[in-house]
Amino acid sequence: MSTNRAAKSGFAAEAQRKINSKYSDELAAECLEWIKEVTGEPINTSGDMDNFYEVLKDGVMLLKLINSLEPGKVKKVNESKMAFKCMENISAFLEVAKAFGVPVQETFQTVDLWERQNLNSVVICLQSLGRKAQNFGKPSIGPKEAEKNVRNFSDEQLKAGQNVISLQYGSNKGATQSGINFGNTRHM
Questions:
Q1: Which end of the chain is more exposed for a tag (fewer CB within 10 A), N or C?
Q2: Which residues belong to any copy of the Calponin-homology (CH) domain (predicted)?
């Protein structure tokens, strides 16, 4: 936990434990090794939560990563350790990650990293960005992204498809409504 926050208790502590249980040291280490490879920075690539947080918390390494993928993409990297400057760095990273094609549901909130609330979502975001790295001629991590598989059918093929009754619709042979009664019968 950050030193400027009180320890959570009760439901909040239980919720935090549940969030932390999803965190994977192996995936975090893979992300840090990828960042080290792309940026050339000498960082500790241990995937434990404490190291992962310490390496990324001020957002400087995240912005160096972005500028390694596309030089000059982020003009201002705040080297200051003041909270709002660090949070500006993290926020700038998130904006560029979305612009690079990371889906919104795979990004994280600034406080997830800065206040160490959900480091797993940071790992997910970096994994997603890592899949996009091949678009910039850099090494990528995680599974290869799927490519479009566009199919072009002729009008004749489309018309032939309209005459086929799919078995997904099922069959209504022998179907009746006899024997179906919902609730109490009506007495007259």
A1: C
A2: 25-134
